[in-house]
Amino acid sequence: MGLLDVFRKRKPASANVAKERLMILVAQERATRGGPDYLPLLQRELLEVIRKYVNVDNEAVQVRVDKDGEQDVLELNVTLPDGD
Amino acid sequence: MAEIIVVTSGKGGVGKTTTSASIAMGLAERGKKVAVVDFDVGLRNLDLIMGCERRVVYDFVNVIQGECTLKQALIKDKRNEKLFVLAASQTRDKDALTPEGVEKVLDELRQDFDFVICDSPAGIERGAHLAMYFADRAVVVVNPEVSSVRDSDRVLGIMASKSRKAERGDGTIKEHLLITRYSPKRVADGDMMSIADIEEILGLPIIGVIPESELVLQSSNAGVPVILDNQAPAGQAYADAVARLLGEDRPMRFTEADKKGLLKRLFGS
Ligand SMILES: Nc1ncnc2c1ncn2[C@@H]1O[C@H](COP(=O)(O)OP(=O)(O)O)[C@@H](O)[C@H]1O
Ligand SMILES: [Mg+2]
Q1: Which stretches within B42-124 are classed as H helix?
Q2: C-alpha B119: how far from chain center
Q3: How far apart are CA B97 and CA B72, in angstroms?
Q4: Which of A22, B10, B20, B46 would be a feasible disulfide site paired with B155, CB 3.0-4.6 Å?
Q5: Rounded to whole angstroms, how far apart are CA atoms B84 and B189?
Q6: Measured between CB atoms, which of B153, B187, B269 is closest to A26?
Q7: Which percentage of chain B shows pLDDT scores above 70?
Q8: Strand-pair category, B174-182 with A61-68
Q9: Helix axes B195-202, A14-31, angle to 10 degrees
Q10: Nearest residue CA, atom 8 of ligand 1?
Q11: What is the number of other CB atoms lying within 10 angstroms of the CB of residue B170?
């Protein structure tokens, strides 16, 4: 590598891209962990349905199963975009 | 009573067997009585890395099936008399490892040893699950690379819910992260995730950082765990990790890029 290479314009650091992607993915996978196997698919289909009506981003729909005493509760969280 | 430590990762080829061999040897060098067990049924390799492949007579599955005693199957290391290897079977029958069989062998090892190191196969199937199921502690081996980090998180999730401790409500497996094949220069260049990045994503304490090193391959070629090469940074980094496993406080080494890097870059090399 020579003098010129040092000053060559750099691409955005790919490590940062990797980290950001993993932060999102790991958070998603943790949220559905331990729940029924259909949760990820349910989440994806819900997202598609909601998108027919509102333009939401990929993380807008969160599904998880919580325990409430003896009962399993399916919790849905949909974040709508800021209205303007 | 031994402590059972599983060395696991999810993803294959990240350095589990290399790590198992060095941690086992390192603990033995520190005076502990250690058994290192290969759980990779069908793909026996630990024996090669330990350099005892020609002395394997009986294996893990032979013991489980009652074809020999545990004593007969344990191979005593030629360099350290406190270290013993239990080889994996080369059978293609993945069901040869039974939960009852593994439990019986581990219980017996627990009586005689200070540490039992379980070298897990890749994946999340039977062998990998059994390797972690009875563990007290886990060393999760991770490379600074997206798929390895993701798989590690998956393994951590399984460990948290599907270990014997978890099923019995008897506490949890104590988890540590070991980053290996780390290249400080590539981190400085922005091409590789840093220790802090991985720590933040996975949220676990780091027991060691092993640099990428050509000497690891040479050690494997010779059947000498790299920790015995005390000139090699990778060997020294493993020795630090072993000390931390034993509760000692050691600063991280070999994690900063070579300071001469910039000059070299300016004037070429
Ligand atoms: N720190 C390191 N530097 C360079 N190569 C390494 C390092 N650690 C492991 N390797 C290499 O990576 C490969 C896979 O290692 P291995 O321990 O067999 O992985 P696993 O048991 O997870 O499949 C081997 O060729 C090994 O020599
Ligand atoms: Mg291996």
Answers
A1: 46-50, 60-64, 70-73, 99-112
A2: 6
A3: 18
A4: B10
A5: 42
A6: B153
A7: 96
A8: unpaired
A9: 10
A10: B15
A11: 9
Residues of chain A in contact with residue B262, where contact means CB-CB under 8 angstroms, are: 6
Residues of chain B below pLDDT 70 = 259-269
| Residue A73 pLDDT exceeds 50 | yes
Is B257 exposed, middle or buried (CB count within 10 Å of its CB: 0-12, 13-18, 19+)? middle
d(CA B87, CA B75): 8
pLDDT digits (tens, 9 = 90+) for B193-205: 999 999 999 999 9
What does the alpha-carbon distance between residue B145 and residue B140 come to, in Å, rounded to a whole number? 14
Which value, in Å, is the radius of gyration of the alpha carbons in chain B? 18
| Cα three-residue angle B127-B129-B131, rounded to 5 degrees | 70
Q: For residue B188, with 0-12 CB atoms within 10 Å meaning exposed, 13-18 middle and 19 or more buried, which class applies?
A: middle
Torsional sign, CA A14, A20, A25, A27: positive
Say how many residues make up chain A.
84
Cα A49 to Cα A35: distance, rounded to the nearest angstrom: 22
Compare all CA atoms of chain A with the CA of B161 and give the residue at the minimum distance.
A34
Q: How far from chain centre, in Å, is Cα B242?
A: 11
Q: What mean pLDDT, rounded, does chain B reach?
A: 94
Read off φ and ψ for residue B210, nearest 5 degrees: -105, 120
Chain A residue numbers touching B157 (CB-CB < 8 A): 29-30, 33-34
Q: Could you tell me which of B44, B7, B45 has the C-alpha nearest to residue B26?
A: B7
pLDDT for A82: 81
Cα–Cα separations (whole angstroms), residue B23 to A28, B203, B236: 33, 23, 11
pLDDT in tens, A17-48: 999 999 999 988 887 777 788 888 898 899 99
